[in-house]
Amino acid sequence: MHRQPLRAALPLAFLLALGACAPAPQEGADPRQHALVGAPDGDMVVAVQGEVVTAPLLDVFARGRGLDPADPGQRQRALEALVETIVLAQTALRSELGSKPDVQAEITLARLLQASGRQMAQLRGEIQVGEAELRAYYEQEAARAGDTEYHLAHILFQDEAMARQVAERANAAGADFDALMAEFGSGAALQARDLGWSNLTQLPESFPEVLRQLQDGQTAPVPVQSPHGWHVLRRIASRPFERPGFEQVKEGARRLLTERLLAERVRGLREAAQVQYAAQSAPTQPTQPTPAEPAR
Q1: Which of 125, 241, 253, 284 has CA atoms 20 to 30 A from the CA of 219?
Q2: Which residues contact 258 (CB under 8 A, 6 or more apart)?
Q3: Under 8 Å between Cβ of 86 and 51
């Protein structure tokens, strides 16, 4: 009757004994030698080489492994696995392995990414986008989209001079745009392809004005600049565009507006933070946020 609890305790006792192979940290030792940095307060469950495991830590570890901490058997399995994990971490951190800069960096970044991810999730959860905001955004995007969509092709260059030369060739009498795409798509251009059908909200901000001046089958006489480079842009065809109903795009719009507000909050935190760059690390120009994609 008493044998089962004894057998369950044996692996844990063995692991605690194994932990003796890893020297306990001395008072005033480098905090990087501690495996349980930032562990939560709570009732003590076990101490491994002087580092205390509390009930909240064990509960989270158990749930992360798909175990129920309220079930005695599953809780014991989780505890044994956690002690094993701590013993391995202590051994690494208090050995030559733990003094390696790349190992220290990996451990630091793992904690950093977990904390920042949790903060992002909390900020996102605090954002509420109301019905009025969604409808206002919908009407704004509908006005931007207009009532026409376009079938486009382009040849994209990094170099403006090259783009101008190709635009001139594309507008010459008898020019074959498909042949030009094949010619420059093999490496000279960043991209050369048929872009399919798009409404104006799905295109770079520099495109609409140019497209309205072209007829179907025409190529822009000069390259069009966007954040991606210089486009030799061809309007292949156009057709009426019927915008989707509000309910169809409502949730997509909610996600987009939520991410925009989240980005603003993160930017605010970044701007309020005191950051001092080393001379060789200082940015040469402000970093611009990546524009969000329109809701479709």
Answers
A1: 241
A2: 124, 127, 129
A3: yes
Tokens standing for 96?
Answer: 């030559």
Residue ranges, comma separated, of all CATH 3.10.50.40 domains in the chain are: 147-240
Does domain 147-240 bear CATH number 3.10.50.40? yes
Mean pLDDT by 10-residue block, N- to C-terminus, for the chain (296 residues)?
40 47 56 86 93 94 96 96 93 91 92 94 96 95 92 97 97 96 93 96 95 96 97 98 92 95 95 90 64 41
Which has the closest alpha carbon to 244: 138, 140, 135, 132? 138
